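name: query_chain
kind: protein
chains: 1
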Amino acid sequence: MVAGHSSGSRNPDALVEGWLTRLEGRRTRVAFADGDDERVRAAAGRLTALGVDPVLLCEDDEFAAPPGVEVLVIDKLAHGPVGDEVEALLRARGKDEPSVRSLRVDATYLAMGLTRLGDTQATVAGSARPTSEVLRAGMHVIGLSEGVSSLTSSFLLHLPDGRRLCFADCAVIPEPTVRQLADIAQASARTFAALTGEPPVVALLSFSTKGSAKHPTLSRLREARELVNGDDPDLLIDDELQFDAALEESVARRKAESSPVAGRANVFVFPDLAAGNIGYKIAERLGGARSYGPLLQGLSGVVNDLSRGCTTEDIVNVALISAVQAGQ
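structure:
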C-alpha cells in the first residue's frame, strides 16, 4: 500500500494503485544514479515489495542495504564493461579526452549504461543533480528513439477530484519550434495514454482562443497541429485554446463551440517552458494536484528525472512509473 492511501475509487492514490496492479507478477530492475542519497535509499527499501528491484550506484558499499536492494560501487563499475560502453559511446559522439575521462566515472552515465546494456530496464536520476545533467547523459548514452527528433518531457497531474491531466513541456525545451511543439504533443499524448489508460485529447494552449487575439506567434500553433495531423491523423488535437476553454465545457461553449477538443482536453501543451513550468507548479501548490515527473520522452530507453527537492514518496512513484513504462 502506498503512503496516504484512502478508500474510494477517486482517491488521489488510485492512479498509483493502478500502476501497482499492472506490475503484479513481474519484477523490474531500475538503476538509481544517486544511490548515496538517503531519500533514494529509503525509497529502495519500499520498492522491493512493489515489484521493483532497485540497483543503487554508490561511492562505497559500507552500509546495510535493505534485502533485495543491489549496491554497485561507482569506481568498480566505471572500470568494467559498463564503463567501457560509456567511454565508447562518448568517443563516438566526439567528446574530448578530458570529458571522456570525467564522464566515464559519472554515476548518471554509468546508470544509463546499465540500462543501455540491458542489465536494468530503466534509470532514475536527478535527486542530487540538475535536470540538465540527466538530459545530457540520456542523449549521450541512451539516445533518441528511431524517428524521434526531440527529447521532451511532461508532468502527469492527479487532481483532488480524480481527474488526470498531462502538462508539457515543463522541463526540457525553453522555446520550442513548430516541429518541437508537434513532438511534445505527440509524445505527451502517448505518455498520458500509457500511464492512465485514457484516450488523450490534446490542446495547444495560447493566450487567445480561436481568433480572440491577433499575434504572429499564433500561426506556430496551427502549423504544429497540422504536423501532428499529418503524423497521427487519429490523435484528437486542436490549437489556439486558452486554458479555461480547453478544460471547462461551459467556457468552451462560449469561446470555441466548434472545437472538437475544447472543454474535453486532458493533455495540455504550453507554448514555452516558462508557461509550462509555472503552470504545473500553480496546479500543484494552489490546486492541490499531485504531480509525477518530469517524465522524459523520446529516448530509446526508459529514463526519468527527479527534482532535487523530491521526497521519498516522489522517488517511489517515479520508479513505479518507470517500471510501468519498461513493461509497455
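note: Residues 1-12 have pLDDT under 50 and may be disordered.
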